[in-house]
Design goal:
The protein is an alpha+beta fold. The chain folds into two domains: 1-50, no CATH class; 51-130, Alpha-Beta Plaits. It has helices at residues 72-76, 102-106, 123-128, and strands at residues 58-62, 82-85, 88-92, 114-118. A two-stranded antiparallel sheet has the order 1-4. It is elongated and about 65 Å long.
Length: 137
């Protein structure tokens, strides 16, 4: 039996198989990839509108001084939580980062420019705890 609720009123578990969940509001008559994420008109059903960072236990902290802008973290992040502009990393979207640590695993620098820290540690404090370069690596 078909639900009488609109898609905006439905929970994820109420959607039928093959249901279309639109990412953006209205008709898109422009190339979305050319618009910065913060300037896009997201639909209510888009995960961009859902804050998930409050249940994270560990978070990635970025050390900009060590970053070589290789874009590995941006490419492999399953939540698109790495913020990059013109092929340069500019930060982490903590509203959507779930703390999986993939960005840290794929970081090639020594020491890594991204490290995982407990959620309650402030980023400024984490930066003071950064390890030194390991010799021979």
């Amino acid at each position: 039996m078909m639900s009488t609720k609109s898609i905006k009123e439905m929970g994820w578990n109420e959607l039928v198989i093959g249901a279309a969940v639109y990412s953006f509001e209205g008709n898109i008559n422009y190339n979305v990839s050319e618009v910065l994420p913060e300037d896009r008109h997201y639909a209510e059903t888009n995960s961009k509108m859902a804050y998930v960072g409050d249940w994270r236990v560990f978070k990635p902290v970025w050390n900009s001084e060590l970053c070589i802008d290789c874009q590995n973290c941006w490419l492999y992040c399953p939540d698109t939580s790495i913020i990059s502009r013109d092929k340069k990393m500019v930060g982490v979207d903590y509203d959507h980062c779930k703390g999986c640590g993939i960005c840290v695993e794929v970081c090639p620098t020594n020491p890594k420019s991204l490290l995982m820290f407990a959620e309650q540690i402030k980023n400024e404090e984490a930066l003071t705890q950064w390890p030194e370069k390991t010799k021979g690596e």
